[in-house]
Specification:
Blueprint lengths: L4 E3 L2 E3 L3 E3 L8 H9 L4 E8 H20 L19 H14 L4 E6 L9 H7 L4 E5 L11 H18 L4 E5 L6 H10 L4 E4 L7 E3 L4 E3 L11 H10 L6 E4 L6 H10 L3 E4 L1 H5 L4 H15 L5 H4 L16 H13 L1
Parallel strand pairs: 3-4, 3-12, 4-5, 5-6, 6-7, 7-8, 8-11, 11-12
Antiparallel strand pairs: 1-2, 9-10
The protein binds flavin mononucleotide (FMN).
The site of flavin mononucleotide has 23 residues, from strand 4, strand 5 and helix 9.
Length: 332
């Protein structure tokens, strides 16, 4: 039986990819992930804020070095950032990871507007990344900002990154767009080779006891797989881009679902954080077992069987089914 698949033009031994998380920030973990069967790994993101902080620190140092060299000692390290890793150390992580692993290492850039951080794509390519994942995480709190404004800015970033590197570039998309399918298609015409469906928006909660907002990170729940599954199924076979289904993938049955919907690869983070890295083995073994039982010899035979493009009953994906589900519930 062959679990081989292609993602972003890369040949992978199976469809399981460890998505960006602190797990992939350490070389030891990366080796464990590879040993446990991950076919590729996305490194945690290098954030726009980290790159801009470093650029600012360099400017400040130059200004103050000219006026008062002692003042330099007062500057905080540019290496501080969301993950405590500055750009140089991140590039070094990419270099060490690609040297240490046989499987492809995908670097991740995370930002929301066109600025100097985009140039880092070139550094990541030189450091040996097999591909680049762009996570454009933006919460449009400005009520005057239109969907078109946001999409134009995203496209500007994609254009700039694709013009900088020869690597395949995938976009980790938000599902909160007015037309996911149309924007996904446009991204591809701007050079994106792959789409990660979807990025997970971290939303604050409200603590009623303390009358305050809370921002504790909770791992995803299994039911969150439905939205990525829906859009994987709608896009599969209708875009030349590789598709990665991501968010809510918890069990090997979930992996099977994503592939039936049409995913080229399936990404997971929360499941690995909840169990441990070796859970990757369980996911791969469960997929093999399922295929074995149904006598599928390769992924191509099953991939996309239940996608929109190949579905006998497309109404299941549409408004018609909305009414049917509500009626069935009311009758029960
Ligand atoms: C602790 C933690 C850190 C994460 N860091 C990143 C990151 O640096 N860049 C990124 O694109 N996604 C990051 N993610 C998001 C995951 O890659 C993934 O998209 C999300 O957790 C949904 O997938 P899951 O349901 O398999 O967890 C992070 C998630 C967690 C839980």
């Amino acid at each position: 039986m062959s679990l081989k698949t292609k993602y972003l033009g890369l040949d992978l031994s199976n469809p399981l990819v460890a998505s960006a998380s602190p797990l992939s920030a350490k070389l030891d973990n990366l080796r464990l992930l590879e040993d446990a069967g991950a076919a590729a790994i996305v490194l945690p993101s290098l954030f726009q804020e980290q790159i801009e902080a470093e650029a600012q620190a360099i400017d400040d140092r130059q200004i103050y070095a000219n006026s008062s060299p002692e003042a330099l000692t007062y500057f905080p390290s540019a290496a501080s950032g969301p993950y405590g890793v500055g750009p140089e150390r991140y590039v070094d992580l990419v270099r060490r990871a690609t040297e240490a692993l046989e499987i492809p290492v995908i670097a991740s850039l995370n930002g929301s507007s066109l600025a100097g951080w985009v140039d880092y794509a070139g550094h990541l390519e030189k450091a040996g990344a097999a591909a680049l994942e762009l996570n454009m995480y933006h919460v449009p709190t400005n009520l005057m900002e239109t969907g078109q404004d946001i999409e134009a800015r995203y496209l500007e970033i994609v254009d700039a990154v694709c013009a900088t590197v020869n690597l395949p570039v995938s976009i980790k998309l938000t599902p909160f767009l007015s037309s996911v399918g149309n924007f996904a298609t446009t991204l591809v015409t701007h050079g994106a080779s792959g789409l990660v469906l979807f990025n997970r928006l971290l939303q604050p909660d409200i603590d009623v006891a303390h009358l305050s907002l809370t921002d504790v990170l909770e791992l995803s729940q299994p039911a969150e797989i439905r939205l990525p599954l829906l859009w994987t199924a709608i896009l599969a076979g209708r875009t030349p881009a590789s598709l990665a289904t991501s968010t809510g993938v918890t069990t090997s049955a979930d992996v099977v679902k994503c592939l039936l919907a049409g995913a080229d690869v399936v990404m997971t983070t929360s499941a690995l954080l909840r169990h441990d890295i070796s859970y990757m083995k369980t996911l791969v073994a469960g997929l093999k077992h399922w295929m074995d039982e149904r006598e599928f010899a390769s992924l191509c035979e099953m991939r996309g069987m239940l996608s929109w493009a190949r579905s006998a009953d497309r109404s299941l994906y549409t408004r018609a089914n909305y009414l049917r589900i509500l009626e069935r519930y009311a009758d029960a």
